[in-house]
Write a structure and sequence with these properties.
Vanillyl-alcohol Oxidase, Chain A, domain 3, binds flavin-adenine dinucleotide, 8-stranded antiparallel beta sheet, alpha+beta, about 500 residues
Length: about 500
Amino acid sequence: MAITRRAVLLGTGAVLGYGVAWATRSKLPVYDGVALIEPQAGEDVLNDASTLSATPVQKHIVIREDPGEALVSAIRAEIREAREGGRPFNIGAARHSMGGQAIPARGHAVTFDNGFVEVDSGAEVYRCHAGARWSQVIAELDPKGLSPKVMQSNNDFGVAATYSVNAHGWPVPFGPMGSTVRSLRMVLPDGELVTASREENPEIFGLAMGGYGLIGAIVDMEVEAAANRRLVPTFDRMPAEEYAPAFQKALDDPNVTMAYGRLNVERAAFFEEALLITYRESANQAELPPAAGSGWVSHVASYVYRAQLGNEPMKRLRWWQETTLGPMVAGGETTRNSLINEPVVTLDDRNPNRVDILHEYFVGFDRFGDFLAACRAIIPASYQEFLNVTLRYVGTDAESVLTYAPVPRIAAVMSFSQELTERGEADMARMTRELVEAVVAIGGTYYLPYRPHPTQDQLLAAYPQAPGFATAKRALDPDLTFRNLFWDRYFRTL
Ligand SMILES: Cc1cc2nc3c(=O)[nH]c(=O)nc-3n(C[C@H](O)[C@H](O)[C@H](O)COP(=O)(O)OP(=O)(O)OC[C@H]3O[C@@H](n4cnc5c(N)ncnc54)[C@H](O)[C@@H]3O)c2cc1C
């Protein structure tokens, strides 16, 4: 079904409000010979959630309304103008990727900021503009008793962006979000508007799923929903070594519909204990309450989370809060939508001298013990403040070309607080490479939307499909118009 809406609203030059950080104020980070480009006076600068990707752009356009078919013409014109000027073109949404994955250097950047969502309750699918945020999707689905099938743990991100990084969530037993997309419409680099799905243009569907905006401009999508349900949690504390089999047992239980884990993070007993949280449907499914979003428990938890910085006793206190107090005060019934309707800002550090940097690693269930050992050897010895790790399940993804889960994997989502100094950045780069090395050695992979610290050789070891992806992209986009810092860093020379 075509989506037709109001007029095009293209505002130019509206650079997002991220601060131009230390990276542009002092020496710029250099990644194996590929330096970030220093902005000239008067140039627009685009950044991302890391605040470390400040990059000059020729033009930045924000699309705030869904203009229907007029959008396709506007996007085509923008792509053509970029190509004729020999400049790159790239679309972004919430810009929470952390290594310029949505930034075209000295090019044409487009931000999709539009929330049109149309729900087909009977078929349990919705159609949405590519830039719709998960908060907007939940707002439409919730009154109809539906919920996103797979999305990230926060509700700020764009739906097409989620497909473009092929993000995962914590409802089980699903693969990444791409597995829940029925079809999409995309403007290819040559301006052709195509539908891509498992039946139509399946190669494009698989390339663009986790293809980091390098294949085409997604304009709208059809995505599967799930039933929203009342859920009840169970909390199980255990030695970390017992987590993988306990998690597998929970996944084998068809009554478990959401599940995640945590590990303790204080340096003295790093990653020694685990907590497994599983949600099962409540016997009471009457009158679902509206999706609650961030409540007082989240805000108190956020306060304790931040107080962990440089404070080992506070890290122990947080573990007690998670394993003992939390189950007592937050252990009651909730809904699927309330659990996932959480904005990133709840955890915002509001500290101009530091930034939260995420890492994520995907490892086989049989290698989880080796993963724990590698983390214990590498992370506490670093200069970084480690705040949190969440353990999730990702089912097999045999569809996306750049798959990170060719077999079922445990995903470890790690949150660091990084000092905004050169020594902080250098230490983060060193530690990241050590972690990637160790994870690849045990048959695992790492996630691509974060900082570009892994080397090109490490990307090739973790993603052996990368050269094939680059070849297919060049065939679709011989002028290399769709480019961003991710392409420039890792694929340019493949
Ligand atoms: C606090 C936090 C929590 C997170 N939690 C999770 C999690 O639970 N699970 C998980 O898997 N990931 C998680 N992530 C990573 C997150 O999924 C990615 O960073 C994702 O890119 C964020 O969406 P965005 O809207 O900010 O994307 P952007 O950074 O704006 O874009 C991401 C990519 O999508 C492409 N793109 C965007 N829109 C289009 C379009 N219309 N057409 C073509 N390409 C497009 C861009 O070019 C870019 O390559 C988290 C990140 C943060 C910062």
